[in-house]
Write a structure and sequence with these properties.
Length: about 260
Amino acid sequence: LALLLDNVERLGGSWQRAAQISLFLQIDASEAEGQALREQIGAMDEVAEAEWISREQALLEFQQQSGLGEALKELPDNPLPGVVLVTPREVDKVTLEALRLRLAELPKVQQAQLDLVWVERLTAILNLGDRFVFGLTLLLVMALLLVIGNTIRLHIENRRTEIEVIKLVGGTDSYVRRPFLYMGALYGLGAGLLAWLVLAYGLGWLNAAVIRLAGLYGSDFALAGVPAGDGLSLLLGAVLLGYIGAWLAVARHLNELEPR
C-alpha cells in the first residue's frame, strides 16, 4: 500500500494541475507582454511551469468546449483575455495562497484565481492515505510479532526437556536463548524475501492493467517497481521483527523452564 501511495504521488503533474493558478491579463495586454510575463513567472523558484494562452487561443478553446461556436462567431470582438496558467512546484495551501498574491501584483495581471478547494481535497486524500498506511503498518507489525512469538513458543515447548537438561548442567539463559533468536531472525529473513518477491510480482501484474488504462487517457504512466533501497529496508525490518518476536517469546517462557 505504501508503494501504491508513492506511485499515486508520482502523478505530480496531475495533482499540480488541480492546483494551477490562472492569471487573467488585462484586455489590452499584447502577445509580447504575455510571453514576457510567462518567462518571468517561469523563472520563479516556486513555479514548475508557466503556459501562455493568447486571446485567440482562448476563444478557440471556448468555442470547442462550450458548444457555442456559431454564436460566438457573431460577437464583434473577442471578449476573452490572455491567460497565463501557472503550475506550482508544491501543492500546499499556504504556499499557493502566498504565490497567488505575489502573482496578482505583477503588471498587466487583472485577476489571479486559485481553486483552493481542490488543494484542500488533495491534501486531505494524501494525508488520509498516509495515516491509513501507518495504522495498517502498526497492525501488521503487531501481528508479525505475535505469529513469530507463537512459533518460537511452540519450538520451546517441543524442546522443553532438552532446555531443562541444558540448564541442569549449568547452561545459562543466554546460551539457551541464542538458537531461538537465530531462528526468529531466519524466519524474518525468509518472510522478507517472500514478501519482496510477491510484491515485485504483484506490481508487475498490476502494471499491465495500469499501462492499458493510462494509454486510454493518452498518458505513458506506469507503476514503479520495488526500489532496491526499499527492498533492503523490508528485509532488514523483517529480520529485526523476527529477532524481537523471538526474544519476547523466549524471555516470557524461559523462566518457566527450570529443571526439576
